[in-house]
Amino acid sequence: MKTKHLLAATATVVLAGSLAACTPGEDSGNDDANCTNTIPKADLPVVTMWAWYPNMELVVDNFNEQNDEVQVCWTNAGAGGDAYDKFQTAISAGSGAPDVVMLEADRIPTFQAQDALVELNDLGYEDVKDDFSDGAWKDVSVGEGIYGAPVDGGPMGMIYRKDIFEQYGLTPPTTWAEYEEAAQALKDAGGPFFGDLGSNVPAVMMALQYQNGAQPFTYDAAEPEKMGITLNDDASKEVLDYWAGLSSKGLVGKQDQFTPEYISGVIGGEYATYLSAAWAPGYLQGAGVGEGADEGVWAVAPLPQWDPDNPVSVNWGGSAFSVTKQADDPELAAQVAFGVYADEASLEDGWQNQIIFPLNVNVLEDPAFQDYEVPFFDGQQANKEVYVPAANAYTGMTYTPIGQYYYSAFTEQIAAINEGSVSGSEAADALQEDVVGYAEEQGYTVE
């Protein structure tokens, strides 16, 4: 199909050089030299895996020690874009991919559309179906097909500075109307920005539009030539007009996030709130937040709502393990995808060290997890109060093969909003025209 060829050419930049991984067809088998880890049971079949979780070595060792049917040969092929570039190279070459690859949920449709991933519905999904919510499964699905084994997610909340709230007599807003009122009060009192509208986090705006009832995309692998795109409906425009208003009034900053400048501002008290996901405490601590003068000042509250009578939980981020079409034994690879990072010890290490927010319901229902006093939040039981309810209520999103282009185009429109050159509604209209045009160029019939 035309779409698949074009996506293969445009999805990512192809990197030169060999892939740093043990790959099928290279006699990798039980050769420990080709693996980051040591394989303890050399007589068992081996499944190769690329993954970048910080505690992956421990996770793989746990799996290999406990499993008497298969062993994992793990390689860290890079995080995020680096790994995707290498995977794209292997897809284009027709060889060099691992049996199992770690993917963020929103990337799955891009590779599924290139026929690079194996559908898992009949390869063990039924055995673990009840371990995850419907929302978690939807995020790793393309239509009715399951293309990933979920591990972690990013239920969203509002992180805030207790010291700033106390100094200015603020309480955590429960609605977006209250959020704007608090932001205005803080500015009027000479305080810092209430939050930040970074152009480089379009996924946050997409999540808030979902929260307001928008449905940006429809896409089903059963009809891969069709795609529904609705980026300028009333719900989407309301969200962008709202944030454009906060930006134009100087109530929020305009700094790109995940930058040294932004982190410096977070540490320095330039922002009273940070709208983010359950993985944020780990990221912030890794960046040096909460270790000096701002230690013990952080707390988290539920994400404000557009309609408090109809609360909606949303998600930002999350990863899964997918089986690639280059796997020597898809059934054995699926056993690894569903089984690795699923044991109690690995999951406990992940959440206690704030590496992941697990989506496994056995963890979400565990009193130890719910009652955990999160150090970053000064002992607050953030899981019980905010993140577990958000995860349980989350119903999932629909991602598409053109998601990365959409994010890039959305970034440009948020930047234009911050510059004051367009209104929120105008940005939504421009985004609709841009993304529809791109989809049609890729061979899709847009509905």
CATH architect. name of the largest domain: 3-Layer(aba) Sandwich
Share in helix = 40-55%
Mean pLDDT: 92
Structural class based on helices, strands and sheet pairing? alpha/beta
CATH topology (level 3) name of the largest domain? D-Maltodextrin-Binding Protein, domain 2
User: Biggest sheet: strands, sense, closure?
Assistant: 7 strands, mixed
- In one word, what is the shape? globular
Number of folding domains? 2
First CA to last CA: what distance?
A: 19 Å
The CATH superfamily of the largest domain turns out to be Periplasmic binding protein-like II
Give the CATH level 1 class of the largest domain: Alpha Beta
Number of beta strands = 14
Please indicate the percent range of residues in DSSP E strands (runs of 2 or more).
5-15%
Give the count of helical stretches: 19
Give unreliable regions as ranges: 1-32
Radius of gyration: 22 Å
Task: Write a structural description.
Keywords: Signal, Sugar transport, Transport. This is Carbohydrate ABC transporter substrate-binding protein, CUT1 family. It holds the Pfam family SBP_bac_1. Residues 1-20 form the signal peptide. The two termini are 19 Å apart. It contains 19 helices and 14 strands. It has 2 domains: 2-153 and 318-377, D-Maltodextrin-Binding Protein, domain 2, CATH 3.40.190; 154-314 and 397-446, Periplasmic binding protein-like II (D-Maltodextrin-Binding Protein, domain 2). The chain has 447 residues and is α/β, with parallel strands linked by helices. Helices cover 41% and strands 14% of the residues. It has helices at 2-10, 56-66, 81-93, 108-112, 121-128, 134-139, 162-167, 176-188, 202-211, 234-248, 260-267, 280-286, 330-339, 344-352, 361-364, 367-370, 382-393, 403-419, 424-441, and strands at residues 46-50, 71-75, 100-104, 141-142, 145-146, 149-161, 195-196, 217-218, 226-229, 252-253, 273-277, 298-302, 315-323, 445-446. The longest helix is centred in the C-terminal third of the chain and has 18 residues, at 424-441.
